[in-house]
Amino acid sequence: MISLLVEANLADVQVLIEFKAPITDVRMDLLLVGSYPQSGQMSIVVVENKQWSRIYRDKYADMVNVTGAPGSNPRLHPITQAWGYRQVLLDYISLVAQSAQVHSIVNMHEASTETLYAVRPSLLNISCDQSYIRWYGAEHRTAFKRDLHRILAPERADIYAHELLAAPVSPTGGLMAVVSESVCRRSVFTLLDEQREAYDYVRRAVAASKQGAPKEVVLIVGGPGTGKSVIAVELLGALNRQGVRAVHATGSRSFTQTLRDNVERMDRRARHSFSYFNSYTHATPNDIDVLICDEAHRIRHTSRKRSSYDETQARPAGRPQVTELINAAHVPVFLLDEHQVVRRGEVGSIELIKKAAQYMKLNVHQIDLRHQFRCGGCPEYVTWIEQLLGLGTDEGPQRWNPLDTFELYVARTPDAMEKYLRRKIAAGKSARMAAGYCWPWSKPRSDGTLVNDIKISSWSRPWNSSAERKVNGIPPSSLWATDPAGFDQIGCIYTAQGFEYEYAGVIFGRDLTWTSQGWIVDVQANQDPAVNRAPHFEKLVRNTYRVLATRGMRGAVLFSEDLNTNRLFAKLGVPLLPDE
C-alpha cells in the first residue's frame, strides 16, 4: 500500500496504521488522511487489506467463503466490514461527520478481477453507497492509483491528521436509550467485525432453514461489553421487519421487563417479542422462526419453579430448559458469558448447549466476540478486573495502568463515591451505585419509603425497590438502572446485570476480602439466600463483582467495606478520587 502511494505521488499523505475505531478496541488496518481535491476539506480513506487470493459466494447469504470447500465457515464480506468502519467514524466523531469526506477501500491485492466480480456487492444485495466504497484486486493497481487521486491530495495532510487524532469521541448511548428505535423502526447500531459476522450468520441460518437445510444451533460467546445484547436487539428488529417471526428471551425479569417497557412506548405489540426462558415448556417444536436467547448463562436446569426441586441435584427431574429452547425454534441462538453465572441454579455454559445439541443430533456454529465496546472500548480494564478477582487466570491482581478512555478510581468512603457520581449526573452523565449482597433487605415501610439497610459508618442508603411499580417516585426494581431516580437507591446484581450506565460505583462487602494469603470468602457475610447456600459460592461471588464492575461505559469507582481490600486497590495503582 505504501509503495502504491509513492507511485501515485501521494507520499505526503498521512498514514495512520492500526487506527483504533471510536468506542471500541477494533483496529482499522490503515487510515489515509489528506485533503479532498475538489474542496480542500479533510479527506479520510479507510483501507482494509485482505490477502485472500480467492473468495466465493456463500450459498445462503451475503457472506463469503474463503476456501470454497463445502461446509467451511462463511466469513463477513470485506465490503461490509470496510463500510462499517466508515460508518463508525461518521457516527462517533463529530469532526468527521461535519467536516470530512470519508471513503472506504478494500485492497485485495492478490485477488483476480474474476474473483471480485463473482462476489460484487450489487450481486449480493449488500447495503452500501458504492460512490463511497471501492475494492481493488491484483489487476487494478492503475485504477487504484487513479481513483485515489480523485478523493485524496497531500495538502494539509499533517494538520488534518493531528486534528483527527485529537478529535473528541461522542459517547455511545446505552442500549435501553434506543432499543425501541432498533426493534420497531430501523437499525441503530453499527456492528463491527465479529458482531456483524454474528448478525449476518444468524440471517444466513434463517435463509438456510427456509431452503430445507439441517437445523443448527448458533452460539455467540463474549465477555461484558462485547455487544451481545446489541446484536440480539438488532437481529430482533431486522428479522421482524423482514417478516421473520423472531422472539427475544432471557432469564432476567428486570432485563426483559425493561425491554418491554421501552419498546411499547413506540409500539405496544412489540412487547410480545420479549419472553422468558421458562415460557417454552409446552411450545410446539419449531413454532418460532428464530429464538434469540440473550443472557444464556442464566439458563436453569429445568423450567420448573425453583421451590419445586432441589437445585443442587446433579440431574433435577424434568426436561432440561436448554432442550426446550432449542426445540422451540427453527434457528435457536444463544448469547452468553460463562463468567456471568451469579446465582444458584444457573447452569448456562458452552458445554451445556453443545451437549444438548449433540444429544439432539444438531450442529453448533460458535462465534467468539473479541472486541470491547463498553468500558471506554478498553479490554485492558476488563482483563484487569478478571485478574484482580482471579477469574480465568492464575496471574492474580496486577498493577493498574491508567487509560485515556476509561476512568478508574478508588474511594475512601461510600459518601465520597456518591458525591463524585452525583457530580457526573449533574454534568449530564448516567451513573449508578451497586453493592454485593452483604446487608439485609427490609420490606418497605407502610408509606412505601425504603429502609436504609446498607450502613457503612455514618453513611447509609436503601437497596433498590423490590416493588413492581413506581411508589412515591421510587422506580420499581426493573427500572432501577434506567430511571433517573434509581441513583438514590443501591442496586444489586439482579438489577444491574444486563444493563449499562456511563459511570459505575461498586461497593465490595465482606463476603470477598483480601488478606496476606489472597482472597477469602465469607458465606456468613452474604445475605443472599439464592447464593450463600450454593455449592460454588466462591465462584458466584467473584462473578458478581466482575459483573458490577463492568457496567460502566466510561468509568468506575471501587470501594470496599474491608480496609485491607480498599488498600489493595490503592496499592495496585488505582488513584484516589479527585478532591478526596
TrEMBL record:
<protein>
    <submittedName>
        <fullName>ABC-type dipeptide/oligopeptide/nickel transport system ATPase component</fullName>
    </submittedName>
</protein>
<dbReference type="InterPro" id="IPR018647">
    <property type="entry name" value="SLFN_3-like_DNA/RNA_helicase"/>
</dbReference>
<dbReference type="InterPro" id="IPR003593">
    <property type="entry name" value="AAA+_ATPase"/>
</dbReference>
<dbReference type="InterPro" id="IPR027417">
    <property type="entry name" value="P-loop_NTPase"/>
</dbReference>
<feature type="domain" description="AAA+ ATPase">
    <location>
        <begin position="214"/>
        <end position="346"/>
    </location>
</feature>
<dbReference type="Pfam" id="PF09848">
    <property type="entry name" value="SLFN-g3_helicase"/>
</dbReference>
